[in-house]
Design brief:
- The protein is mainly alpha-helical.
- The chain has one domain (3-172).
- Helices cover 58% and strands 2% of the residues.
- The longest helix has 16 residues, at 93-108.
Length: 178
């Protein structure tokens, strides 16, 4: 078995089983996310696997969700075909599309990030054709109905486009400079 194939199969198994939030946190720390600099992690971690595991989680602490755009800003040269396909297989393409949007918005204000903006834009557009019609949340499926109603009226336009109930914007993200 080829090593790359093993890694993909291993990741698929993780996505089916779901990673625990503390595993995702350790993965983000291993990738160098500044918000988790205090977390000790000796495990090797792949950015794609960590983000996909987070996006497939029904409920995550907002600190974990806020870290996801940072990953794409600092690791833009990933296997995007694999990421897209795994997102579709796990029905999280809307979540991925919105996280890409957040990362792109954060990168636009930095002229040195032109390559990152280009990569993120390409894959965001690619995901647009696969948007799900069902409304969802950004890793917060336990959201109370009252909050859902409020967000339907006051969510950012991009969140509505991706059919997600979230108020998270690029301006609210810590550590997002590329």
């Amino acid at each position: 078995m080829v090593v790359g194939q093993w890694r993909r199969e291993c990741c698929q198994a993780k996505l089916k089983k779901q990673m625990k939030p503390e595993e995702i946190e350790r993965g983000l720390a291993a990738l160098g996310y500044p918000g988790f600099a205090h977390v000790r992690s000796s495990e090797e971690c792949h950015p794609s696997e960590t983000v996909l595991a987070a996006l497939a989680s029904p409920n995550l602490d907002v600190r974990l969700v806020e870290a996801l755009p940072w990953v794409f800003l600092h690791y833009p040269d990933l296997n995007w075909l694999w990421i897209r396909d795994q997102a579709k297989l796990n029905n999280v393409q809307n979540r991925l599309g919105y996280v890409l949007h957040l990362a792109q918005q954060a990168a636009i204000s930095h002229p040195e990030s032109a390559h990152v903006v280009q990569v993120l834009s390409k894959w965001q557009k690619d995901l647009e054709e696969a948007r799900l019609t069902q409304e969802g949340t950004l890793c917060r499926d336990s959201m109370p109905e009252r909050e859902r109603e409020w967000l339907r009226n006051y969510r950012p336009a991009a969140a509505a486009y991706w059919r997600l109930l979230t108020g998270l914007t690029a301006e609210q993200l810590p550590y997002v400079t590329p």
